[in-house]
């Protein structure tokens, strides 16, 4: 019996939105087959982050980021830039002033501007979009913005300044605010408050990135739909920027599974089918869905949050073959 042809995801969704994957220097080699067959957009998982490209004040290291940009160009893929200003994976020197004291506001703003000018300027016309500010909203219900050196040393306007600097460095780039737990109602409302405030001050923000690090038990489809509805009402484009559907609840500490259980497989198939049906409903505002990886042989969820544990969050298996969830999001016409 002839095997069923495997349609390219990027072609299946060409009339809906881009299909992206996060990559690194290893996976552009080890997963080249599945990446080039199915994806038309890539994001550097870590290799464009501050600590990787700007480890010392007068040192920029673009070799890895350039290789990823070259891979995208060689295979006709779009490139998303990730990420310019984040509380994490930023070298300590950025926040250090003289005599061991923290940097003052003017020094830190100047360093931010230099970094954004240099990085965004290098990939001007190459990276079509940037996650400008990442995860600046606090998860705790009674706190709005996350405590970080950016906030402590500059103030709340560090966010607006980052967008202004990025827009000046590449006026054509599409600029996103990006966050996780974006569907949780209390955090969702704070993200909306932040983005609406930026828009009202004419800050050049063009989109909201919903990371989409979800699992088989939450958030519910109704919660995702409500969030998408409310973000869409902002009048900006939306992207799912870091999608993976963990087979484990976050609190699940099992380490003994060598493969997902049949129940996990079934739930994952059903969830992928439902969320992609939802995404398709919002094709007028949703411009890309990027998985935070490509296939189950590599995912940041291996070992997180439980050390030594394997996860299987994607629609391609460890051998780069389509899983049942792949067919659920492909066979919808």
Number of helices: 12
**Sequence of strands across the biggest β-sheet:** 1-2-3-4-5-6-8-9
Poorly predicted spans:
none
Spatial extent as radius of gyration: 20 Å
Average pLDDT reading: 96
What is the number of beta strands?
9
**In percent, how much strand structure appears in the residues?**
15-25%
Largest beta-sheet characterization:
8 strands, parallel, barrel
Helix and strand composition category? alpha/beta
Helix percentage range: 25-40%
Order of helices and strands: HEHHEHHEHEHHEHEEHEHEH
Give the terminus-to-terminus CA distance: 24 Å
Global outline: globular
How would you summarize this macromolecular structure in one to three sentences?
The chain is an alpha/beta fold. 37% of the residues lie in helices and 17% in strands.
Secondary structure blueprint with pairings:
Elements: H1 9-12, E1 18-23, H2 27-30, H3 32-38, E2 41-44, H4 50-53, H5 63-74, E3 78-86, H6 105-122, E4 127-134, H7 149-154, H8 158-169, E5 174-179, H9 185-200, E6 207-210, E7 213-215, H10 221-232, E8 237-246, H11 262-281, E9 286-291, H12 324-330
Helix pairs in contact: 6-8, 11-12
Structure description:
By secondary structure, the chain is α/β, with parallel strands linked by helices. 37% of the residues lie in helices and 17% in strands. The protein has twelve helices and nine strands. The protein has an eight-stranded parallel barrel with strand order 1-2-3-4-5-6-8-9, surrounded by five helices. Helix 6 runs parallel beside helix 8 and helix 11 runs parallel beside helix 12. The chain is globular and about 65 Å long. 42% of the residues are buried. The mean pLDDT is 96.
